[in-house]
């Protein structure tokens, strides 16, 4: 029996020692993880999951930025149609409704389509914009800055669930990260992420009031020393990170650079053999580099992705059609990427030999004419 090459595998030792204290959540290890989180934002707020972190960030950003939100009959949030379902779930958990914009060829939200939607609505009924990091590749920071200049009262929240380890900045005799103009950014530490805490999320913001609101919403909508009656029954969450998860996150974070080095090597093997989605681009002199959460190839037009996933499974290789399109017929780029993108195994337990086997197996499968069948094999 062959051992399956999994899509993801957390970079953790077989045995770890944890420190237990009387304070099992929001203690010193949570604070350490927040302090060491690798972003330029002034404030970081650790949560129990990436999804709830996004929901809290959306709620807090809108509460602090859009004082007329309570007057809107149906506040909407524009987001990319090409995303993971948790993005949509977080928008709904925050109390809003998603409106889908198309993406560009890199799978990132297309701000031209965002402007089109806002133009059609005359800016009404739109409470925020959420842009999704695509498999590690950051949303165009220049687009975010331009949008914030044009619509200062509409917050932009970046769903960077897969973005730990990514880089946005200027490369000129060194690497100089830029300060994000987004209202808030959120990250996931689920088991499939580059940095994992078993489960966890992180909110990163620069605005002190939004950070304060996020910390309140994380704890039922009340202050740290508040009373039970201060619970916000409409907006509050129970989203504290446990100290055990924080310790796991700190260990995983300490291995980030070595993790990224191995992932780049594996991606290099794929890129030499398969048509891969990009892991870097430059926009107006600002470099955007992927955190390499996933290595994603684009299948040829007409290939049945479900067939390929099932056939790869028979070769003991786990793959996934990770992002879907939620925009219906009005988002052609997202629709095209949705049926063609295939995430390949990428983690530190792999070697170049494993990546070569994955690439060769996929190419062999694509030679089989039956891959165009509309029947779902699995």
Q: In a nutshell, what does this entry contain?
A:
The protein is α/β, with parallel strands linked by helices.
Describe this structure in words.
The structure is a single chain. The chain has eleven helices and 15 strands. The protein is an alpha/beta fold and 378 residues long. The protein folds into two domains: 28-254, Aspartate Aminotransferase, domain 2; 256-372, Aspartate Aminotransferase, domain 1. The strands form four sheets. It has a seven-stranded mixed beta sheet with strand order 1-10-9-6-5-2-4, sandwiched between helices. Strands 8-7-12-11 form a four-stranded antiparallel beta sheet, with no helix packed on it. Strand 11 (280-283) and strand 12 (286-289) form a beta hairpin. Helix 2 crosses helix 3 and helix 8 (256-273) packs parallel to helix 11 (352-366). Mean pLDDT is 89; it is low at 374-378.
Blueprint of the fold:
Elements: H1 28-36, E1 43-47, H2 50-65, E2 76-80, E3 82-83, H3 85-93, E4 97-101, H4 111-121, E5 126-132, H5 141-150, E6 156-159, E7 167-171, E8 175-177, E9 184-188, E10 201-205, H6 208-218, H7 243-254, H8 256-273, E11 280-283, E12 286-289, E13 295-298, H9 305-314, E14 324-325, H10 332-340, E15 341-344, H11 352-366
Helix pairs in contact: 1-7, 2-3, 2-6, 8-11
Strand order of the largest sheet: 1-10-9-6-5-2-4
Structural class: alpha/beta
CATH architecture heading of the largest domain? 3-Layer(aba) Sandwich
- Quick one: CATH class of the largest domain? Alpha Beta
Task: Kindly provide the radius of gyration, computed on alpha-carbon positions and rounded to a whole number of angstroms.
Answer: 21 Å
> What's the number of structural domains?
2
CATH superfamily of the largest domain: Type I PLP-dependent aspartate aminotransferase-like (Major domain)
Strand content: 15-25%
Total strand count, please? 15
Largest sheet: 7 strands, mixed
Mean pLDDT: 89
Identify the overall geometry: globular
CATH fold title of the largest domain: Aspartate Aminotransferase, domain 2
Q: Which regions have little confidence, pLDDT < 50, spanning 5+ residues?
A: 374-378
Helix content: 25-40%
